[in-house]
Each structure stands twice: as C-alpha cells, then as structure tokens.
Amino acid sequence: MDDKYIKTRAAFISILSNSFLIILKFIAGFLTGSISILSEALHSFSDLLASIIAFISVKISSEPADTEHQYGHGKFEDLSGVIEGILILLAAIYIIYESVKKISSGHIEIIDSNLAIFVMAFSCLLNLIVSNYLFKVANKTDSLALYADAQHLRTDIYTSLGVLAGLILIKITGIFIIDPIVAIIVGLIIIKAGADLCIVGGKNLLDTSLPEYETFKINKIINESISGKIVAVKNIKTRKSGNQRVLEFVLIVAKDLSVKEGHDYCDYIEKSIMEEIGNIIITIHIEPCDGVCENCDLKFENKCSQ
Q1: Residues 175 and 239 in one domain
Q2: Alpha carbon distance 33, 105 (integer Å)
Q3: Distance between CA 97 and CA 155 in Å, rounded?
Q4: Total count of domains within the chain
Q5: Which of 50, 6, 43, 1 lies closest to 22 in space, CA to CA?
Q6: pLDDT tens, 142-167?
Q7: Nearest by Cα to 193 from 147, 244, 141
Q8: What's the whole-model pTM score?
C-alpha cells in the first residue's frame, strides 16, 4: 500500500467523521439552545473544510513532478495547512462574537441538558479515535495536511471536553450563563490552534530551514564523511516542501580528485543522509580547492580559504 493511498483514505475517513458530527451537533444545538454546542458544531464545520482541503492536497501533493511543477507538488500541503489555520481563526472569532452577543442579550436557556451532554461525550470519543488514526498516518507519511487535520480534531476533543464539563456544571447548578462563557473559552483555544497551523505552513512556504535537530544530524554526517581529498563544506542550505526535505551544499575537494572519485564521495554522503533523515532531495556542487591551504586533508571544523 503506497503513501498516496494511505493518506487519501485517512483524509476521507476524517471527512465522514466530521460530516456526521456536524449534523449531530447542529441538531443537538438547536434542540437544546446551547450556544456552546452550536460553537462546537461550527468548529466541526471548520474541521470538515480542513478535511476536504487535506483530502485534495494529499492527492495533489503526491503527484510526481511535471513540466509546470518541476520540484514536485509538496507546497500544496503547506498551502493547505495555512488555509486550514485561517479557517479555524475565522470560526473562533465568530464563536466568540456570538457568545458575547448571547451574554449581552441575556437570553440564555438550555432545554435538554441530558441530550447535550450525550452528544458532546460521543463527539469526544469519536474524535479521539479518528485523530489518533490521523496522527499515526501523518507521522508515517510525514504529511503536514493530515497532521493539521489531526490537530484540528485533537483541539476539538479538548474543546468538547470543556463544553461537556460546562453542561454538567449547568445541570448541577442551573446557572445557564456558564454556556456562553465556555463557548468563549473554546474560541480562544481554537485561535491558538489556528495560529500554530498558519505558522508551520507559512514557514515551509517561505522556505524556512529544517528543524535544528535535523540540521544537526545533517551537519554531523557531512562532518564525519569528510576525509582524504575532501577539504571542506560551505553554503549548506535546507528547506522543506510538504513532506519533502531539500538539502544543497558545496563540497571543496582537492584539485587532483577525479570525476569518478568525486561522484563516489557524493553518493556516500547522500546515502548516509537519506538513511538518517528519510525523504530528502540532495544537491551537491563540487569545487576544487584553490591551493592556498597547507594541505588538502583538512577536516570540516578547520577553516578553509574557501
């Protein structure tokens, strides 16, 4: 089973789950009059949009490079992560607005708290199952779109638990203003999740370097690979496009190094990095040493005239 099929199936399952919860929450929200459940329904609707975007993006991003997109389609996943984040932010703002309006109007009433409690408990359980599955697939395939989708559902679990606790408290105390207050708290939590997704996707779109722990591994491998006629390394650059990492650097070599020897050195370094890092495209440019150094057996940590 290839990654494309696994990711597409996971995104489709998320769509089905969110669609079912949206219908259930809207029905429960209208029947009970709970603004916190309606806010959760809206949250699930933003999750559905996110799932649809993830479904489309994983299909597109899995396509091989073509004449129009010669570096592949990985950026579609990064773009989808930003769009999903924006959708979450907009939903959160609307939830807070409606909750404040509800408090200001003073018309706060819940008809059937038992139904509301049951719906939110079921929502927590279903989202826990689906989000765990999505996180598993996202980690296996290194898919930002699926990770974003899973993060949405995980946030939905936390907010649903908050709403559930509020509904139980209302049932015990009879203080109905707790409902819109909980909804406002839900909105603030959603804002945090949306902002995080926008930041992660935005960094990849702007070709931010790979995480520090990955660049450390790359530098360590390059350092350990340098010996003999390999003098030094310069201009190490990294970035990420979807689940595809990109690395390029310049290898300074002795003037008498043959093309075959240079090719073998590059193959060895590339293989070592790929085994450690995983899905990565590596471009190595070889330059001859200018002969200023006292010898051509310098280590990576030494300063080279290049």
Answers
A1: no
A2: 14
A3: 20
A4: 2
A5: 43
A6: 776 777 778 778 877 877 888 888 88
A7: 147
A8: 0.58
